[in-house]
Structure formats: structure tokens, C-alpha cells
Design a protein that fits this description.
CATH superfamily of the largest domain: Autotransporter beta-domain
Radius of gyration: 40 Å
Mean pLDDT: 84
Low-confidence stretches: 1-7, 9-14, 19-42, 84-99
Structural class: mainly beta
Distance between the termini: 71 Å
Strand content: over 45%
Shape: elongated
Number of domains: 2
Length: about 350
């Protein structure tokens, strides 16, 4: 549709100015945008010219305003296209890890030393032997102990605290040799309940933690001593650089006397040196000792231990290890294989 435009609007405006004013026309938009304009696909509305202005038609500016608005809209589209092109050609930084992302899997396996790390809040971690065989020989009599799994179940109850429960659901003790024939006893082991409290920031180079525990006598006499016992483990882990970590785990226990009629102290310690061989494989070697001050006679035990761990997936670890006794009171040898997982 053609639009007539007065090439020289001055005479027309002059004539209009000489006419008497009959009534006042309120200035308002031709439509109520909130009521009369229906949303279009995409949820966006663009109003141009008289549809967007409150200027009365008597000013004869509808066409001019419409052309100006159309030009502004075209410029806006041009700027948006340019910005999008620049954005797609600029390098994109890798997204930052989520603040709630769980740390790397950290376990108390495979050796005897206790780590300072705790299970992340709200997560469950299971660490268990798949098989564990121990032999001690005294005076020609051999005592073999086999654990058919021995899971430790951990649950993170805070950012630096977890609770733990350990039990061997089935174990066998076999006594043989020395001219005494052969005898075996089997059953469930004792239940250990623990709380681990990390004392330092999880990102600190050196880590410290405390782990009080109590033993509930769930094993029958012969496998256990049917007495409640407990203790406190302290641990410190020190980053040495080049993938090396030194772990020191002192422990003090309150034990039942051998005659089951009193209590005495046992002191235990482990000094462990670990090394990350690759991003998923680590090895460790440690020396361990226990001094059991039973009134009937102090028992000294010493061993040298070694372990190898492989993190197959972020929340799955396999390990193997062996402990070698260094004196007669210590088991001659112990070999085991285990698994740890977290969810």
C-alpha cells in the first residue's frame, strides 16, 4: 500500500496551527501490549512504529518512527550476530570442577598403617580382604588363620569425620603339626567400631587424624577372647615430594589379660613409606611393632610389610600385600589380596 508524504510539511502545519482547538486527545498506544498482543513462537515480541509509541497521529511521525525503529532493530541483530561469531571463535576454558566433587579414593589398605583421610560426607566406602592367610609356627606347632573376606564399612558423617565398622563374617583357625594332631575352629570374628576424625585441612601437605575404636566380642572363645577391648590410633601423613609419602601411626590399646581377669596396655606403631609409581599404581613398605604388656609376660612383635595398590577406576581399588615376621612371637608370614570401593 502506498503512503503519501507531503514534500513540504510547513504549509500544512501552519494551517493546522490556525484552526481552533476543539478538544484534547489523550496520548496513548493504539493497543495494550500486555492484553492485545499475543506471544509469538520463541516468546519474544518486537513492537515498531505506532505500535510502540505514545505519539498522537496529528504529529504525522508514524512512518518516520517506524523506519527509525526498523533500522535500530536491524543494527541490534547485526551486533548480536557479530558477538556470537566472536564468542565461538574464542578459546573456551575448561569448566572448573564442581565444589562438591569427591576427592580421590583414599583407603587404609593395603598395609597396617592408618591413613589420615576420611570418607566424603554422605558417601559409603567398603574396604575388604578378598582372602587373607596367616601362619605362625612355635615349637613345631603351626597355626594357620584364614579370613574369608573381612570388610570395613565406612560412612562419611561430616567433612572431616567418618564412622567405621569391621568384622570378619567367617574365619578358620587350623592348628596342626608338632605331634599334636590337627584341630580347627571356625566362625564369625569380632566386631570393631571406629570413628575417624581428620584434624587438618584435606588439601594440606601434612595430614593428621585420630581414630578411637572399641572391640565388641562377637567371636566365640578360641577365635576371640570374649572381652570388650579398645584403643586410640593417631596418624600423621607427610608429603615428601616426588610422589613419596611418610605415614606414622602410633596406637595405644587397653587389652584383656591372658587369664581374662584384668586389663593391661599394648602399644603399637607403624612407620610406612609410600610411593606413587604412576597415576593409578602405588607401592608401600613399612616396619611394624607391638609391645603387649601382659602381666604374665611382655610379648614383643615386629614385622616388615609391603603392599601394592591399583586404582582401576576413580572409585575402585585392588591391592595385594605381604607381611614378614621378624621374631618368633610374630606370625611368620601373612599374604592377602583386597578390594576397596566407594559410592
Amino acid at each position: 500500500m502506498g503512503v503519501g508524504v507531503d514534500r513540504d510539511p510547513a504549509p500544512c502545519l501552519e494551517r493546522q496551527a490556525q484552526q481552533p482547538l476543539r478538544r484534547v486527545q489523550p496520548l496513548r498506544p493504539a493497543v495494550d501490549l500486555h492484553r492485545d498482543v499475543e506471544p509469538r513462537a520463541g516468546g519474544a515480541i518486537v513492537a515498531l512504529g505506532n505500535a510502540a509509541q505514545g505519539l498522537h497521529p496529528v504529529a504525522a511521525q508514524g512512518l518516520n518512527l517506524g523506519l527509525r525503529d526498523a533500522q535500530d532493530l536491524a543494527d541490534a541483530f547485526a551486533r548480536q550476530t557479530t558477538d556470537a561469531t566472536v564468542a565461538t571463535t574464542e578459546p573456551v576454558a575448561a569448566p572448573a570442577p564442581a565444589a562438591s566433587e569427591a576427592p580421590a579414593l583414599c583407603t587404609d589398605r593395603p598395609t597396617k598403617a592408618t591413613s589420615a583421610c576420611t570418607v566424603p560426607k554422605g558417601m559409603v566406602q567398603i574396604e575388604s580382604d578378598l582372602i587373607n592367610f596367616t601362619r605362625i609356627e612355635i615349637g613345631g606347632v603351626k597355626v594357620d588363620t584364614i579370613l574369608y573376606t573381612s570388610p570395613t564399612i565406612k560412612y562419611g558423617i561430616g567433612d572431616s569425620t567418618d564412622i567405621e565398622a569391621s568384622i570378619s563374617p567367617y574365619e578358620t583357625i587350623h592348628v596342626h603339626g608338632g605331634g599334636f594332631g590337627s584341630e580347627s575352629i571356625s566362625g564369625v570374628g569380632d566386631l570393631y567400631l571406629k570413628v575417624k576424625q581428620r584434624l587438618t585441612d584435606p588439601n594440606a601437605t601434612n595430614q593428621f587424624a585420630l581414630l578411637p575404636f572399641i572391640k565388641i566380642p562377637t567371636a566365640k572363645l578360641g577365635i576371640g577372647n570374649r572381652k570388650v577391648e579398645g584403643g586410640l590410633i593417631g596418624t600423621g601423613q607427610f608429603g615428601l615430594g616426588n610422589g613419596f609419602t611418610l605415614t606414622v601411626s602410633p596406637e595405644a590399646d587397653l587389652m584383656s589379660d591372658g587369664d581374662l581377669h584384668g586389663r593391661h596396655v599394648q602399644l603399637v606403631g607403624a612407620l610406612n613409606l609410600g610411593k606413587a609409581l604412576t597415576s593409578t599404581v602405588s607401592a608401600s613398605v613399612e616396619v611394624w611393632s607391638a609391645q603387649n604388656f601382659d602381666p604374665s609376660g611382655t610379648v614383643h612383635q615386629y614385622s616388615i610389610d609391603g603392599g601394592l595398590a591399583w586404582v582401576a577406576r576413580p572409585n575402585l581399588q585392588f591391592d595385594v600385600g605381604a607381611n614378614l615376621g621378624l621374631n618368633q612371637a610374630t606370625p611368620d608370614g601373612q599374604v592377602y589380596a583386597g578390594i576397596s570401593t566407594r559410592f
